Amino acid sequence: MKQERVMQRRSRAVSRFPRLRAVGMVLSAAGFLWFLLPIVVGVMNIGNVFGMAVCTLFFLTFCLGARIKQRGGPIRVVYLIVSIALGIGVVWAAILSGLMVYGISNRVQEGEEGIPVIVLGCQVKGDVPSTELQRRINTAAEYLTEHPQAVCIASGGQGAGENRSEASVIAEGLQKQGISADRILLEDASANTRENLQNAAAILAQRGLGTKVAIVTDEYHQYRAGLLARRIGLIPRAVSVDTLVYIFPACYMRELLALTKDLIIA
Predict the structure, then answer these.
(1) In this structure, are 144 and 238 located in the same domain?
(2) Which of 11, 69, 161, 228 reaches 20 to 30 Å from 44, CA-CA?
(3) Mean pLDDT of all residues in 133-143
(4) 111: in domain
(5) Does residue 192 share a domain with residue 68?
(6) Quick one: which of 188, 259, 192, 186 has its CA closest to 221?
(7) Can you give the residue range of the structural domain that contains 123?
(8) pTM (2 d.p.)
(9) How far apart are CA 253 and CA 110, in angstroms?
């Protein structure tokens, strides 16, 4: 009798929020499709793969939660642990997203227009800049044209599938848009954002260009780039590039993972 009453209470508790579960399932499915979008256009990395996995886990949690709660036992404990972990993950992602927005707001201020510019590297496909890198080149060229007193550090080594260093491709792209070669310095030995900035900082120090810099990179990347820059003594400002909608999901989730790592591991 007692067990029957317990089961009845669980059943009533489970049936209280059917609409909430339905909304959760719809949002999880929509999230899965959102992270799938970059793959459709040929962009696949840890970001969208992880995002699809998380959305699948959310969907199963909403879909099977009622049955699991009714059954009870060890599987119910596992379900509660997973639910709590997902909830913490959502809160953490919201916090990091807020930091990303804050990073975008750290723009070049009045009187700082002549500070050196660092263009962070991105994928080169053979000899051709990826769409994302080309947009960084375009943004940097526009900024350098508007501020002819500023010099630029093109940053990025040569990675897998790249016939040339990212720095050399950036420099070539800037010159095609009218930026003089004597305004462009090359940093072509780095493999990630941390090394981009460390090597660029060394060049700035060698040439006595100070520590205040304008960083050209995608909006989602600005906060982490600024965080890493400050850790090595630079004073960063943001010159941001809008990320294309169809690759944003993969870039955004990958950045959440990378920012988490950099916040935990100083």
Answers:
(1) yes
(2) 228
(3) 97
(4) no
(5) no
(6) 259
(7) 117-264
(8) 0.87
(9) 33
